[in-house]
Amino acid sequence: MSKNEFTVAQLLDRVNTVRVAEGNPRVRALVARVVSDLFKTIDEMDVTPDEFWAATDWLSRLGASGQMGLITAGLGFDRLLDIKLDEADAQAGRAAGTPRAIEGPLYVPGAPLSKGEAWLSEDSPSKGEVFVMEGRVLDIDGKPVANALMDVWHANEVGGYSHFFPGLKEFELRRKIETDAQGRYRFRSVLPPGYAIPPNSPTSELFDALGRHGHRPAHVHFFIVAPGLRTLTTQINVPGDTYLDDDFAFATRDGLVIDLKRIAAPAGYESLGIAAGTQVALSTFDFVMQKARDDDEASPLTRMARVATA
Questions:
Q1: What are the domain boundaries of the chain?
Q2: What pLDDT does residue 303 have?
Q3: Residues catalogued as catalytic
Q4: Contact in structure between 246 and 214 (CB atoms under 8 Å)
Q5: Stated pTM of the model
C-alpha cells in the first residue's frame, strides 16, 4: 500500500503523531483532541468543502474583528471555565465569598486612580440616571480590606465601551478606586442599560444562523486586588432588565444581582457632585474576597493579561 494514501483514520493518526521534536506535551494532547473531534464532525456530519471553507473565512474575519471574546462568552466557554473553578472550590471547601463572573474582552488597564471614591461619568457626555454604588471590601472573616484596588468599568447608554467605541474619552466610565481604612468604596456613574452584540459582524452572523439573540443585561464589571487575597473578577447585574435571566453570555449569577433603591440622596455625597435631595439610583454592595493560597491567586493581572505574560 502506498505510504502517501490514507483512510480517514490513518490521516488522523498521522496528523496527531508526526513530529520532529518533543514539542509541548500538553499542547500536543489538546490539539490532538480538538483535531480528532473536528475530524469526527466533518466525517459524521458530511461537511462539504464549501461549508468548511466558509467556516475558515468566518474565523479569519472573526479574528480581524477583535470579537473573539464575544464568541467565547456567547458559546458558554467563559462561564464553563468559571463553573469548573467553582466546582474545584467546592471540592476544596473554599466555596465562600463573592461569586466570580466572566471578565469579558473589554478591560483596559491604566484607569485613573482615586482614593475611596470616584466619579466615573465626570465630564462625560454619557446620558442616563444618576447611579451611586457603595459598600465595603471584606475578607471571608468579615474584616475590612484597606487599600484594596478596585477597577470598575461599564458601557455607556448605547452599549459602547471607551477604547472600543468611537467618540468616547480615553477612560470614560472607567476608574480604579483604592478602598479606605475601613475597606469602603463608592462611585457615581450613570445607570448602564443592557446592550447587544454589534450588528453586521462575524458574531451576529453566527448567532443569526443559530437563531439566538445577542443581548446582554445591564451590568458593571469589577476587578479587585489586595495583598494576600485571591484576586476577584466579577460583575454585578442591574435588577429588572429584560435579559437578566437570558444573558447571551450566560454571566448572570444569583448572588450578583444588586438591590437598587431610587431615593433623594441625603447629605454627604457632595464630593461626587450630588447635592442633597438629588434623585439617584443607589445600591449598597459588599465584595467578599477569599484568602489566597499562593502568589499566583493574588496576581494583579487580569485573565487576558496573564496570557500576554505567560
A1: 1-45, 68-309
A2: 80
A3: 161, 195, 216, 219, 221
A4: no
A5: 0.94
